[in-house]
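F.,

This is the one I mentioned.
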């Protein structure tokens, strides 16, 4: 349990921690019956209810307090999908793996909750997906790098939404996704205890106001549209 809490504290917007892979089984329609098919370059947004943790000394609530909406769900992670033949791969940045490309079922394993279920996972696609394969190849160039626990824009390491932004660059060299000043404060203007603890541990000031990204803001970009896909339909473990 101590290790689990350690990952919860440090994973931040990346990974919820590895609670185990024995997920509750669920019946799903086959992929062939879906109105939409998963495509290379689709983005997977991992969501939790805003009240998943009420104590802002924990990771998820600290994220909700500083980047979440006041109602609904809070996206705490974003990943890139790659479809090859009959397999689905995920490219993302987490504390557990750094920047890595792994099978979809490894992704499910990483995000399995302690009750054996999976959090909500929403699929979003670029309105113009014609260069998706190029963006995925860009993302592969980052594999092997570490997770950016410092949330700084000028180092080689990447956090989840930073990886997506730095991979989705058009033929003019322009980013498809925007940056904005990062906010780590709650609505009352104070830093949740989690952020204070984390940056004290790594010996860095909280990067309040520096340019950056987060999954919540990225999910609202006009270039994206939500597609009706059940990601679990593509699991080889079902």
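My design for it:
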């Amino acid at each position: 349990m101590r290790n689990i809490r350690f990952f919860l504290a440090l994973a931040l917007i990346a990974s919820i921690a590895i609670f185990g892979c024995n997920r509750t089984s669920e019946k799903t329609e086959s992929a062939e019956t879906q109105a939409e098919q998963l495509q290379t370059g689709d983005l997977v947004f991992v969501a939790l209810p805003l009240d998943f943790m009420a104590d802002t000394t924990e990771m998820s609530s600290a994220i909700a307090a500083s980047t979440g909406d006041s109602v609904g769900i809070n996206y705490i992670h974003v990943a890139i999908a790659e479809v090859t033949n009959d397999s689905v791969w995920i490219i993302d940045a987490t504390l557990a793996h750094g920047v890595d490309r792994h099978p979809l079922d490894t992704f499910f394993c990483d995000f399995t909750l302690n009750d054996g279920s999976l959090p909500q996972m929403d699929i979003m696609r670029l309105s113009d997906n014609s260069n998706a394969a190029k963006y995925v190849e860009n993302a592969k160039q980052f594999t092997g790098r570490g997770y950016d626990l410092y949330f700084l824009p000028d180092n080689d390491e990447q956090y989840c939404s930073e990886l997506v932004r730095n991979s989705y660059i058009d033929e003019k060299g322009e980013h498809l996704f925007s940056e904005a000043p990062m906010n780590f404060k709650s609505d009352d203007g104070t830093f949740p205890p989690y952020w204070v603890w984390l940056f004290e541990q790594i010996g860095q000031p909280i990067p309040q106001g520096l340019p950056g990204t987060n999954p919540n803001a990225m999910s609202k970009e006009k270039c994206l549209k939500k597609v009706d896909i059940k990601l679990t339909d593509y699991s080889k473990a079902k």
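The mean pLDDT is 82.

Talk soon.
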